[in-house]
Each structure stands twice: as structure tokens, then as C-alpha cells.
User: Fold PDZ domain-containing protein from Haptolina brevifila.
Amino acid sequence: MALEIPKLSMTVSAVVTLQKAALEPVGMSIAMGGPKGREDVMRVREVDSCGPAQNAGIQTGDIVLAVNGKPISTLEALVKSFGEVNGRFVVQAQGGQQLAMSKNAEGQAGMKLVCVAAPVVTKVFPNSPAARAGLRVGDTICSINGRFLPTIESVEREVASEGEMRIEVRLPRPSSNWLMSPRTPRLSGRRNSGNGDASSRRSSGSGPPSPTPHAASPAPASPASVRPVDDFIQSV
Assistant:
């Protein structure tokens, strides 16, 4: 008898539709990982040739949001969820993908995933395309037009175009939508550089952001606090 494939609703993410003109600022700020650097997603780094993941349609760069409906946001949750499944199971990826697969003879799905920072909305400006679309401060962006965007620059390029774009955000969403007071809308974010955190603010409006008086410079990370990249990679 054939094993039943779980039929799951898209409960781990929601899609908002944003409309903007070609030169219109999108009207939000973002930070990679959020203000405290804690919002991560599991991104596919490698896919084994002819393995279960590849046969199911998973590609390098995809984001694994859930396994059999259980949300995945840490490597620990990833290992636990893949360890619990038997027979056929469903991997939910960005863009509403629901991909059914089974483990191979070695009990593996045939892919490696890496924990990466996700874009998080930190400001929404009133009467902007972002505000009209219903984006909220604290929203974790899983994809824009079906693709995960791993850097501030890639987000900027994607939202610079005119017309309609579909922005997928992780559930549960923040309970309220706090709007900034009116000023020049910007798309801004933070990137890591070397062993320390460097702030990078890029404008989708005009002119540089106003300097903040008495802003404290972030302390550089000590070598002991910097984890090797391999610590964030997990094979399943």
C-alpha cells in the first residue's frame, strides 16, 4: 500500500502584495538578522546529485521553513525534525513550495543546510508602499517574488522595480504594526564585516541619513566569540 503524503496548508508563512511606482521609495528599513541579530533561516548550501532532496525539486539557495508542518528556524530544530520523520514527508520551502520526499538508504535527505541571517523589517513609514501592503515592524522576510535574498543589496535591487511584488513573511507575525513618524523613507540594513559588526545604511530615497549625535561605536567581537562557518552547517 502506498504511503500517504501529508497534505499541509501554508501555515509557516504568509504573503503580502506590495505595489510601487518605478522611482517610489518602498518605505521601510530592514536589518539582516533583526535588531538583535537573532532571526535566522535555514538555507540549502549543497544538494546531493540524484539524492532525495534533488529528486523532490530542492535547489541550492532554497530556504527550508518547515518539515511536516513543524517550523524550522534553528539547526537544532532542523536536526530534530529530520530525525523524527519516517517514510514520506513534506519539506516546506519559500514561495509556498511543498516538496515530498523520503530519506535514502543511509537515512539522509541528501542536502546540507546553513544557518543564515534573514532580512527583518525594522521600520515602516506611513503612507508608503510597505505600509499599504501591510508589512509590520518585526516581519522576517522569507522571500521576495519567490526568491530568498541574503543581503541588503539584493533586497534593494529586487524592490527597486515598479509594479507588483510578493513578499513572503514568516509566521507568527508581530501583533502590531508600529509606524515611524513621517520622514524620508529608506531601505537600510546591517552587514557583518570581518570580526566585527559594521552598520550599513543605504537609501531608497534621496540624500544620506541624518547622523545620530553621541552614537556609540559597537565594540569589536572578540576572537573567542566568532564561530567558524562550519559550525552553522548541517547535513540531513
User: Anything to note?
Assistant: DSSP finds four helices and 14 strands in the chain. The first strand starts at residue 13 and ends at 20. The domain at 13-39+118-193 is CATH 2.30.42.10 (Pdz3 Domain).
